[in-house]
Amino acid sequence: MPMQQHDSRPQAAEATLDGVSETALWTVRMRARESARTQALFADPLAEEFLAGAGPAGAPPGDGVLQQVLPDWLAVRTRFFDDHLLAATRAGCQQVVLLGAGLDARAYRLDWPAGTRIFEVDLPAVQGFKEQILAGRTPAAAHRVPVAADLLGDWRSAAIAAGFDPQLPTAWLCEGLLFYLEPRAVDRLIATVSELSAPGSTLGAECLNAATAESPFVKPWLEALSDAGTPWIWHLADAERWWAGHGWQAQVADLLALPYVVERFAPHLSAFPGMNTDSMMLVTATMPAGGR
Asked: What average pLDDT does the chain have?
């Protein structure tokens, strides 16, 4: 794994969890389990260390079909965006911005082009917990830049103060984030992203397909999330049109055209023939010349 390590590491008991959301812990627990699989779609050794610092992590609410599929969905989503970000940086994006980064460890675990800067934007409390776990570690090729800021506030100034350069093409990632926000908050957030994106920038985002929100596959999941106090609020009906309204040329990935997705989802498709394979959309987009 592309990571340099030093001997000075905090003990798990020293880490504090203030501000780290339950959803971030669900995600990192699934990453740890995926990394332990024989044919894992990615390897994230730091996931186990985050869990050790966090203590027991809960599980997503409810027990519907989507919850059973969720660990494999997360693995597919992670692999998809890993590939997208690496392709973007190898094509010339010198900086990456992970919005709502949570306990993401991509700065350490991916084979970045030398000198790539990875800006991780999240709340100060999240950054504080993460820094305790990562103390003494330096990514092998990338330069990791934590940005402590609220995405509902002035995170733009914080990113620029941390060294983000709006004149350079950027690879943006909104993974597991947007559907938790009010529509107007999503509009504001993506408007800021667009303003900061030089031509040649790319974007990856996970979106809930509004057309399937009432389906037997998705509705029980949304109800369970709402009952647990973590509702998915933002749904998207026409992804290409919505992103075009913010200056991006976007497309929704045809996931069943990817061999690793077909292999991973095959058991679910046979067990649950009514499963909506398009309920979650993985969107990639580019900022054309003159787009902002």
From this structure: 90
d(CA 286, CA 264) in angstroms, rounded, equals: 28
CA distance 254 to 237: 16
Provide the 10 A C-beta neighbour count for residue 57.
16
Strand-strand pairing, 3-5 and 137-139: antiparallel
pTM: predicted TM-score of the whole model, two decimal places? 0.92
DSSP string, 174-237: E-S-GGGS-HHHHHHHHHHHHHT--TT-EEEEEEEBGGGTTSTTTHHHHHHHHHTT------BS
Q: In sequence order, what are the beta bridge partners of 99?
A: 121
Rounded CA separation 29/25 (Å): 6
CA-based nearest residue to 220, from 265, 149, 133, 279:
279
Cα(127)–Cα(101) distance, integer angstroms: 9
Which tens digit of pLDDT belongs to each residue from 2-49? 444 333 333 333 445 454 578 888 899 999 999 999 999 999 999 999
**Residue matched to tokens 């669900």:** 26
β-strand pairing of 170-174 with 95-99: parallel
User: Strand, coil or helix: what is 22?
Assistant: helix
CATH of domain 62-286: 3.40.50.150
- Assign residue 274 a region (left: φ > 0; alpha: ψ between -120 and 50; beta: otherwise): alpha
Q: Pull the structure tokens for residue 198.
A: 């030089």
